[in-house]
Specification:
The protein is mostly helical and about 325 residues long. It has helices spanning about 1-15, 20-45, 55-60, 70-75, 100-115, 120-140, 145-165, 170-190, 190-205, 205-225, 250-285, 285-300, 300-305, 310-325; strands at about 50-55, 75-80, 90-95. The protein has a three-stranded antiparallel sheet.
Length: about 325
């Protein structure tokens, strides 16, 4: 139910006519990134790479109360933690997030929201460049493959759109068409290299990869056999898996919980948002809105391999950045957020 509530709240944001103070949002996003980096540096300096988890004030106050594991996990402060699928592997950063990949997603979206409106100020450009380096360092500490891929995609898209911003809308549209037409032959030309890179990515943290794909296969077979139209409503826990079935993929999770109907709704929403984001990249001259568009497009690995609707802060940032990227241009009336 909590996943559904995030989608409802997100759709409420997208359907509203908020007047946002985007400069304040950018400043706050930068502060959260800097604070996260400071926390990482402090605990690395004082404890090194160690499994560090603390109870929050609320968690300490309710320490003796029997609560569901999900509620208990939400009342903890995670700094660093062991690999979820294999505790013998290296320590991964979780700062400001319930698990490492959620931190990587949070960093990506905060980088988009913290972008300057334009490149007219050299001081702001240098500061944003420093934020990008900090974001890269935090993402590396998470060891999240989806996070690193998404951040690289974000930087590539943002760099490409920034360079092309001096072109007219018709020139950018023509360039986009050429890129799309070249994408297929180029992908065929580099398929061997891409296949090797995919194999290396799967082999890195192999226990996580095999566990994840086994979970996907079980979940798809289960819902296809038992309830393909409307799904099961919730993620089931089964003895052979440490995490609920339907986890670690937004698309598979939607299919497992809501069947073909829910998956179709999610795909339609995602495709419509992709079209809006691409249109904003072609027509919008505001760097911050272009950055938010790039971030949403770069989130594709998270939609495939993670639950974007599980960590609360990430879900909020996703809808906020999508609103700024593709909906805020119709602002005219409304109350400040």
């Amino acid at each position: 139910a909590y996943n559904l509530s995030y989608w409802i709240l997100g759709l409420m944001i997208l359907s509203s006519r908020l007047i946002l103070d985007q400069d304040r949002i950018a400043a706050s996003s930068a502060k959260v990134l800097l604070f996260s980096a400071a926390v990482a540096v402090f605990f690395l300096a004082t404890h090194g790479f160690a499994d560090l988890t603390y109870n929050s004030l609320l968690g300490s106050a309710l320490g003796g109360v029997s609560l569901p594991s999900l509620v208990q996990d939400s009342m903890k402060l995670y700094i660093f933690g062991v690999e979820w699928a294999d505790s013998d592997l290296a320590i991964r950063a979780k700062i400001m997030a319930p698990y490492p990949t959620a931190l990587a997603a949070m960093v990506l979206l905060l980088l988009a929201l913290a972008a300057p409106k334009n490149l007219h100020s050299q001081r702001k450009n240098i500061f944003y460049g420093a934020l990008l380096l900090i974001g890269l360092a935090l993402t590396v500490l998470t060891q999240s493959r989806a996070g690193l891929l998404s951040l690289v995609l974000f930087m590539a898209l943002l760099g490409a759109t920034t360079i092309s911003s001096r072109f007219s809308s018709s020139q950018k549209l023509s360039l986009l068409i050429v890129i799309v037409c070249l994408a297929l032959p180029l992908s065929l030309a580099v398929r061997q290299a891409a296949s090797a890179m995919w194999t290396d990515a799967v082999a890195y943290r192999e226990s996580s990869s095999s566990y994840r794909f086994s979970l996907y296969e079980f979940g798809v077979k289960h819902v296809t056999t038992e309830s393909p139209i409307i799904g099961f409503g919730v993620k089931h826990e089964v003895p052979q898996y440490k995490i609920p079935v339907g986890s670690h993929s937004t698309f598979i999770g939607a299919f497992y919980k809501t069947g073909i109907l829910g998956l179709a709704a999610l795909v339609i929403f995602w495709l419509a948002s992709v079209v809006r984001a691409i249109r904003a990249l072609v027509t919008d001259n505001d760097l911050r809105r272009r950055a938010s568009s790039c971030a949403f497009l770069a989130m594709m690995p998270f939609f495939m391999f993670e639950d974007v609707d599980a960590p609360q802060f990430v879900a909020f940032l996703l809808f906020l950045s999508l609103y700024i990227a593709t909906y805020s241009s119709r602002q005219g009336t409304g109350d400040p957020l």
